[in-house]
Amino acid sequence: MDVHYTAVATASGRDGKAVSSDGRLDLVLAAPREMGGDGEGTNPEQLFAAGYAACFASAIAAAARGTRQDVRDVSVTAEVGIGGDVESGFGLTVVLRVELPDDLENGRALVERAHEICPYSNATRGNVPVELVVE
Known about the structure:
Layout: E1 9-11, E2 17-20, E3 26-28, H1 44-64, E4 75-85, E5 89-99, H2 107-117, H3 119-124, E6 130-134
Helix pairs in contact: 1-2
């Protein structure tokens, strides 16, 4: 694969800090209250959700490029769930909620195509259940 960009970030744990190599990302990390943490920081699931949502919206734009359809008003919300335990391991689930403009033709087909080309979808395929909800 011809790599176009490499993001670099360092984290000191679920209750710590995450910093990107360029310093643009500098976050306090904290486990959510639902997992016994104080919830006073960002958690890895939120970061994954934000990245997946942004990437998937971009993939929809790429899928629509050949159709000359305007997808500027597309909105993607990613819901990332985590569950499991220390003995059996932890896993993720993802629901992608895609809001499409009312006048968009073949919207579901664009979403399906985006799911085929999105790097996050390709990374999770076969490992993480991903549900696509078109609204």
